[in-house]
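$ ./design --mode recover --in tokens.txt
reading tokens...
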């Protein structure tokens, strides 16, 4: 009996060991299925090579209620990956204080992508540019002693590393990296650093090495990339950004790295005073196909696939509230045709021959003076893919390939997945165009339904911050407001009926008041870093008050030494006949922000305060004025927008949530404003009693505003 039980125990033990080994082997196999590696041909996910099409969708530029539909449309359009930046300033508004709620819920966004079966490329940065205020940096970094951004500077590196670790740790704790079975297959550190690297010399080179080593040491289990960084250190992959990476990309800096395109600009950001950039579906398709054919490209990301909205004060200097509205999914998340459909067709054509593209050998040849061909062939399976390229932008041509004739439209590429039959040509668009339908559903023309609140013009005696010089704008406002008052009390020794107030400013807008009377305003533009204001003013003998409201329309987002940028007034003079009184170094008083901001008059709970009164007789003549009205939500589920064409410049709120800045009065060379329609997400609205608040700087007319639904023709 004893011997029997010994054998039983041994058998049970062996079975347990086998189960443990089997369980371990199964876990290892599962891990292998999630491993992301790469070689000189492509990314390799779970042992399988992939050609990946990706699209940028930025979570804070839309709403959680919009995310599922945006992602579903991206997937239907043939995308495999959603790419997003991580926005440092919204997540860490103060050192060590974090916010991942609402539109900032990064984990929820990534889990929604995962739920729909797509991958994620997470561009942590944490410098992102992205036409986002201060390039995504929280402004409190500016006040860190001895800090210099984006170089071998210990204070900056410490904060950058801390935030990067925070994000990586959050992703790991949620199991979101592919190495954990999650959707994140790529991460990015830094962003287009090579654009400014020369400004820092050897310190810049050391910073690149440090950033790469820091990222790699975080053990995410997925590759890291650096975009527009030809010297990206191993194991990081250098990637291309731009519109023509099939022509401009110098290639991976190692034969063991794949060709990745992290930003294929589907349009371009628009600035106030500028015109929209329209990039055709044909041009995008041409350059994507060329990148795959010529550069062996295996990852292409569309920047943007959905641009969305720069809500609040999130846009960078002079950038409009609507972002990349010309993307395949427009600002409202609606299909922009034929761009969306044409790219979907191209994705299908390339994926139909992806096995050969990923395994075959490439050769190229000339088909004519401006024509070329690329063939990828598999020796074992006999697969063959051809790309026939016509670089002539004017003329269609007929080329000979493998004893067959092929007609190529101007500036186009034909894809032949079997080296015989054309399944797609980049210039042949089979998708019908659609148009945006704007349907007004409510007007705001009844004056008796409007209320107003007049903001206050502070004088020198109203201020508590005093200086004997003109102080820098951003250092005082800390990006908590666009507005800074410069105030001065001065003595005019003799009357001057033809005086000129001269102001130079390195901000974006200035409004000047003398003795509480508005005498005029001026502004700069995206290309000019300063502007001048010259307005006549009659000055009697005695004491006068000058109040100048300096305005920023977003903070700068790029360039070296961002922490050193100067904004605000630089010189102030009173010129009277042949005399000039320089007031630059006089004693100035300062007030940060507006009274209405201090009172939070735009908040829903403050909409019934006693500060409001009836609308004035002539709103077009009023400056620095707040307006309020109430409206019901349109029926249905169509997108909603406010037409603010009758306004001047300011900001708008719905139920306490800012839908962004507006600047209708700034026209382009065709005398057109950059943007008139302002997106109001459905999630911002209630069925009834929605409170609309606007702050108007320069005399817009709220009676001309309309509420609209937005759709597209089928």
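writing sequence...
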């Amino acid at each position: 009996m004893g011997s029997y039980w010994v054998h039983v125990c041994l058998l049970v033990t062996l079975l347990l060991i086998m189960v443990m080994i089997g369980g371990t082997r199964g876990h290892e196999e599962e891990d292998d299925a999630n491993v992301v590696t790469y070689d000189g041909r492509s990314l390799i996910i779970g042992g399988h090579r992939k050609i990946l099409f990706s699209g940028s969708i930025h979570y804070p530029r839309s709403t959680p209620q919009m995310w599922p539909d945006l992602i579903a449309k991206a997937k239907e359009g043939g995308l495999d990956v959603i790419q997003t930046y991580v926005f440092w300033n919204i997540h860490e508004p103060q050192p060590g204080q974090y916010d991942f709620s609402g539109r900032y819920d990064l984990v929820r966004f990534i889990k929604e992508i995962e739920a729909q079966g797509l991958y994620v490329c997470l561009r942590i940065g944490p410098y992102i540019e992205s036409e986002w205020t201060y390039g995504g940096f929280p402004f409190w970094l500016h006040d860190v002693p001895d800090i210099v951004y984006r170089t071998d500077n210990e204070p900056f590196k410490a904060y950058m590393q801390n935030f990067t670790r925070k994000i990586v740790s959050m992703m790991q704790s949620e199991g979101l990296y592919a190495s954990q079975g999650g959707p994140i297959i790529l991460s990015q550190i830094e962003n287009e650093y090579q654009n400014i690297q020369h400004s820092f010399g050897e310190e810049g080179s050391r910073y690149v090495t440090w950033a790469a080593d820091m990222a790699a040491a975080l053990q995410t289990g997925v590759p890291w990339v650096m975009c527009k960084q030809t010297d990206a250190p191993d194991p990081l992959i250098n990637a291309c950004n731009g519109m023509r990476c099939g022509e401009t990309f110098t290639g991976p800096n190692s034969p063991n790295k794949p060709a990745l395109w992290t930003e294929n600009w589907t349009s371009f950001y628009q600035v106030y005073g500028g015109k929209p950039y329209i990039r055709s579906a044909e041009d995008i398709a041409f350059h994507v196909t060329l990148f795959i054919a010529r550069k062996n490209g295996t990852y292409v990301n569309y920047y943007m696939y959905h641009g969305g909205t720069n809500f609040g004060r999130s846009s960078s200097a002079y950038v409009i509230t609507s972002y990349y509205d010309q993307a395949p999914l427009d600002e409202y998340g609606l299909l922009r045709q034929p761009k969306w459909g044409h790219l979907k067709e191209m994705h299908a054509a390339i994926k139909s021959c992806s096995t050969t593209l990923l395994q075959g050998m490439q050769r190229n040849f000339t088909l004519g003076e401006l024509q070329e061909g690329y063939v990828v062939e598999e020796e074992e399976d006999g697969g063959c893919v051809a790309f026939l390229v016509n670089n002539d932008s004017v003329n269609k041509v007929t080329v000979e390939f493998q004893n067959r004739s092929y007609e190529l439209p101007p500036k186009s590429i034909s894809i032949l997945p079997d080296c015989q039959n054309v399944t797609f040509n980049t210039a042949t668009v089979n998708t019908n165009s659609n148009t945006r339908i704007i349907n007004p559903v409510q007007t705001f023309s009844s004056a008796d339904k409007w209320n107003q609140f007049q903001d206050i013009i502070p004088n020198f005696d109203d201020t508590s911050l005093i200086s004997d010089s003109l102080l820098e704008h951003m250092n005082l406002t800390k990006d908590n407001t666009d507005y800074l008052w410069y105030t001065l009390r001065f003595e005019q020794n003799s009357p001057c009926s033809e005086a000129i107030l001269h102001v130079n400013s390195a901000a974006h807008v200035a409004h000047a008041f003398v003795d509480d009377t508005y005498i005029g305003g001026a502004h700069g533009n995206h290309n000019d870093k300063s502007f001048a204001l010259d307005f006549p003013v009659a000055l009697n003998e005695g004491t006068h008050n000058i109040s100048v409201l300096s305005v920023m329309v977003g903070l700068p987002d790029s360039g070296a030494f961002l922490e050193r940028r100067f904004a605000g007034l630089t010189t102030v003079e009173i010129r009277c006949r042949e005399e000039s009184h320089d007031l630059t170094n006089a004693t100035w008083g300062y007030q940060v922000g507006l009274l209405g901001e201090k009172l939070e008059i735009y908040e829903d709970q403050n909409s019934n305060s006693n500060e409001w009164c009836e609308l004035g007789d002539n709103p077009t003549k009023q400056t620095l004025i707040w307006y309020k009205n109430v409206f019901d939500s349109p029926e249905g589920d169509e997108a909603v927008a406010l037409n603010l064409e009758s306004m001047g410049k300011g900001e708008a709120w719905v139920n306490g949530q800012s839908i962004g800045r507006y600047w209708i009065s700034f026209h382009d060379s065709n005398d057109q404003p950059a943007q008139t329609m302002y997106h109001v997400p459905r999630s911002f609205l209630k069925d009834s009693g929605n409170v609309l608040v606007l702050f108007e700087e320069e005399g817009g007319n709220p009676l001309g505003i309309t509420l609209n639904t937005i759709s597209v023709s089928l």
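exit 0
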